Amino acid sequence: MSQVTAVEVRDLVMETLNLHEEYEPEEVEVDASLFGDDGLGLDSLDALQLAVAVEEKWGVTIDENIGETVFANIQTIADHINANR
Amino acid sequence: MATFPIPHREPFLFLTRHDATRGEEALFAYEMPRHSDSFSLKMFPSLLMVEAMAQAAAAFHGVRMNEDDGGDGHVETGVLASVDKVRVSGRPKPGDTLTIKIKRRKTFGPMVLLDGEVWVSHRLAATAELYVRRGGPGGPE
After folding, report:
1. Chain A residues within 8 A of B107 when measuring between CB atoms
2. Taking CB atoms and an 8 Å cutoff, what residues of chain B touch A48?
3. How is domain B17-134 classified at the CATH fold level?
4. Strand, coil or helix: what is A28?
5. Do B131 and A52 touch (CB under 8 A)?
6. Domain A6-84: which CATH class?
7. Where are the alpha helices (DSSP H) in A1-85?
8. Which residues 45-104 of chain B have a CB within 8 Å of chain A?
9. Do A67 and B108 count as a contact with CB atoms less than 8 A apart?
């Protein structure tokens, strides 16, 4: 099974959260924080929507207890997916 | 008159009774008033079916969270945070009974995703995804 790339995850994040209106894909760095004022500024609703989208696309569940770690940035999401597929 | 763990009251309460809870699913009903001086709408506005699903989702969330926490009598409230993928395929009329089916699909942090359906006379009239925030404004982050 091929590895999920950070670019694929970035595309899913942008599509799920309709970020195309605010950002060009290349503006979203894979190691930038997703939450907080110094990142994309996502909130808890975004986190739930992302968790559902990842589960539907790659069949990987993200437990809410490790959500903060997994959703640190796009690369950490890709790493979690690849470690749990 | 049944009471529900949400702040809504007549005439903006679109739940009449809680019929059943089975695991992550619950059934509610709303018996629409017949045409009268106090209810002069000829059709039930589609948006109010979404509101009925939202009220049922918040009520179900409160009941289930209480059960999850051991049923100590403290009923957690939920506040609607978002609605997505709304589809309307029917228009109930005064006198109809709405059957509102709610299914809790996922909980993640302070947010809960529930699927809602409204059935009228065994026909699907509306569906939506409902996002409820636990505890409402100022609740858990």
Report:
1. 64
2. 106, 108-109, 111-113, 131
3. Thiol Ester Dehydrase; Chain A (3.10.129)
4. coil
5. no
6. mainly alpha
7. 6-16, 44-58, 67-70, 74-84
8. 81-82
9. yes
Under 8 Å between Cβ of B51 and B11: no
pLDDT digits (tens, 9 = 90+) for A27-77: 999 999 999 887 888 999 999 999 999 999 999 999 989 999 999 999 999
Q: Mind listing the pLDDT tens digit for each residue in B9-66? A: 988 899 999 999 898 999 999 998 776 655 566 778 888 999 999 999 999 887 666 6
Residue pair A9/A74 in contact by the 8 Å Cβ criterion: yes
User: What does pTM read for this prediction?
Assistant: 0.85
Cα separations (Å) of A35 from A6, A27, A44, A63, B37?
17, 16, 9, 17, 51
Domain residue ranges of chain B, discontinuous segments joined by +: 17-134
Residues 6+ apart with CB under 8 A from B19: B27, B28, B29, B99
Q: Give B15's Cβ-side CA count (13 Å radius).
A: 28
Which of B105, B106, B131 is nearest residue A45 as measured by Cβ atoms? Answer: B131
